[in-house]
Structures are given as structure tokens and as C-alpha cells.
Amino acid sequence: MMNLFRRIEWLIVISYFLIVIVEIIVLRNLSGSPEANIVRYLTFFGVVLLSFVVVRQQIVKPIQEMRAASLQIAEGEYSNRLPIYNNLELNELAQAFNEMTATIEQSEQRRVELIGDVAHELRTPLNNIKITLEGLIDEVISADSTTFFDMQREISRLQRLIAQLEILSRAESDQIVLHKQSAPLDALLHSLTGRLAIQFEDKGVALEVDISADFPLIPIDSDRITQVVTNIVGNALQYTPPGGRVVVSATYNASHATIAVKDTGAGLNGSDLTRIFERFYRVDKSRQRGSGSGGNGIGLTIAKHLVQAHGGNIWANSSGYDQGTTIAFTLPRSKN
Ligand SMILES: Nc1ncnc2c1ncn2[C@@H]1O[C@H](COP(=O)(O)OP(=O)(O)OP(=O)(O)O)[C@@H](O)[C@H]1O
Ligand SMILES: [Mg+2]
């Protein structure tokens, strides 16, 4: 692939070369005659025309294509891509342009999807509240504490959804700023599980912590990692029936720490193992809604973004439905 300036230099050299050849071969015999001048003029005209065509094909046309593509982007059309040019600078420019267009197209797609998903998620609780209010007005629903409790629950769910969406939108646009500091992960896990102990007792699910006392300090944003573990342990509680057990453990090697939350609950099958990290994905929506404990399907998506922002990975393991689930994630031990 040839450099743009080198190409222009070659064009000039070849033009002179052509003129010199014509002078030598043709004009040697015709020198001084009127025919010689005609040949001379025609040669110059031919060379100028040739240069014009080459410059137009190699430089002007690609620039025009880029201009047209930019105008299309300005009009919101992101699917077009520029071709590969056989010119170094123009090709680099075209590839950078294509990457930029792909990024804009992706984020535009995410934006449209997010709006659709949010509208869908808001519809159910709002409908429930509206139907209950209509029932109260028409006096077909009695104004007792159960009715108000149901409405309060729907409103709380909406508030929680909005709070989660704020975090999610920042996480999805990579706007989460981490305040990392070397922190004792063992103390963080003990205090977090201590705070959740009452909820586990109330449901009759055992909660254990398995972590060695000499656990090293890990560079983390403690608030964010608390949020990650809270989401995962909250799920373990929600999807484990009474009589079950949840174990929070942490191990480490030279490069990273691994935190795992293992439960004896509902379990997961096949593609659910990866899909649960997608936003708004819930394994069994109707069952969760029916039981009144319906989540929003965002907790693990937020957890995934926060873990990835720390440079770690998150995954799920399960042998199938009702076989329990383990959700684990890593956190690098290096500071960057
Ligand atoms: N420990 C678990 N056992 C079985 N299923 C689980 C477990 N954790 C998550 N899931 C499944 O993954 C889905 C997504 O989990 P996620 O935490 O993202 O959303 P959620 O719990 O439904 O709602 P929220 O946004 O309120 O947390 C859940 O709806 C549930 O179906
Ligand atoms: Mg959850």
C-alpha cells in the first residue's frame, strides 16, 4: 500500500518520463515542423488528463465517499462502512472512521434497547397500581392494609428499579469511577454477612462464611464490591428455599482473589448460566412475579460491570434446576 505523497511524487515523475519519451522517440523526426507542435500539445494534454483521472480516482473520490458517509451519520444512518483503499493514509482514515461508526451504532442500539426494556419493566408495576386504584375508586377492592401493602410494594419496586437503572446506565457507558484502596476482603465479607444474618434467619436459610484469617489486602473499591457481594448473596437468599444453605468463601493465588457464593437453591440450566448476567433477564419471570418476590433482573448485570471495571471476571455454575448455584468472581491483586 503506497503513501499518499509518494504516490503524487511518482505521478509527477511518470508524467515527465512520458513527455521525455515522446520528445525522444516522436519529435526527433518531426523537430521544427508544425506536426511536432501538435504532437507536443497533444502529449501535454494527454499527460494532464491522465494525472487528472488518477488524482480523481485515488484521492478525490475516496474523500467524497468519506464526506457522504459523514453526512449519513449526521442523519442517524450508522450502518454504512467505507471500503478498503489502496492508499495508506486514506485507508487508515477510512478504518478509523469505520471503527467510530461501529461504536456509535452499538451505543445507539444499546440506547434504543434500554428504552424499550425500561418501558416494558415500568409497565407492569404501574398497571398494577392503576388497577388497584381503579378498584378502590369503584369500591370493588376493599381499602384495607393488604391493598395498601400491595401498592406500597409495587412503588418500592419502582423506586428500586429507578435506583438500579441509574447505576446501570453509568456502568454501561463506562462512567463508573472506582476509588480503589488496599482493603481487607475478609473483614468486608464478615461485616456484610453479619448485616444479612437476620434476613437469612427469618427465612430459615443457613449462612456461612469460609475465609482464611490471613487473607491478603486486595485493591478494591470497597463500596462497589460490597454492592456486588450484596447482589449475589441477596440472590442466593431469594432463590434458596427454607432449610437450604448459603456459603460465602474467598480464596487467593499470586494473581487474584476469588469470591464464591454457593447455595443449595433453585439452580440454573444451560444457557441461563450466561444469560443471567444480561440486563432484565430472569429465569422464570411468571413464578417470581406470582410469588410477589419478583426481582428486576438487573442485580447481576450491575455486578458484572463492577467486577469487570475492577479487571475481574464473573461466572455462574450449576448442575441444573434445584441443584443449587455457585456465583463466583475474581479480583486482581495488582493495583492498575
Ligand atoms: N443463586 C441463584 N439461584 C438461582 N437463580 C438465580 C440465582 N441468582 C440469580 N438467579 C437468576 O438470575 C436472574 C437474574 O438475577 P439478577 O440478580 O440479575 O436479577 P433479579 O434477582 O431477578 O432482580 P434484581 O435486579 O432485583 O436483583 C434471576 O431472576 C434468577 O432467575
Ligand atoms: Mg438479584
Structural write-up:
The protein is an alpha+beta fold and 336 residues long. It has three domains: 4-77; 112-171, Signal transduction histidine kinase, dimerisation/phosphotransfer (DHp) domain (Helix Hairpins), CATH 1.10.287; 181-332, Heat Shock Protein 90 (2-Layer Sandwich). The chain contains ten helices and seven strands. It has helices spanning 4-25, 27-30, 34-74, 88-137, 145-172, 185-203, 222-238, 272-275, 285-290, 299-309; strands spanning 181-184, 206-211, 217-220, 245-252, 256-263, 314-318, 325-332. A hairpin with a 3-residue loop joins β4 (245-252) and β5 (256-263). α3 packs parallel to α4 and α6 (185-203) packs parallel to α7 (222-238). Adenosine-5'-triphosphate (ATP) binds next to α7 and α10. The site of magnesium ion (MG) has 5 residues, from α7.
Strand and helix map with partners:
Elements: H1 4-25, H2 27-30, H3 34-74, H4 88-137, H5 145-172, E1 181-184, H6 185-203, E2 206-211, E3 217-220, H7 222-238, E4 245-252, E5 256-263, H8 272-275, H9 285-290, H10 299-309, E6 314-318, E7 325-332
Parallel strand pairs: 2-4
Antiparallel strand pairs: 1-3, 4-5, 5-7, 6-7
Helix pairs in contact: 1-3, 3-4, 4-5, 5-10, 6-7, 7-10
Bound molecules: adenosine-5'-triphosphate and magnesium ion.
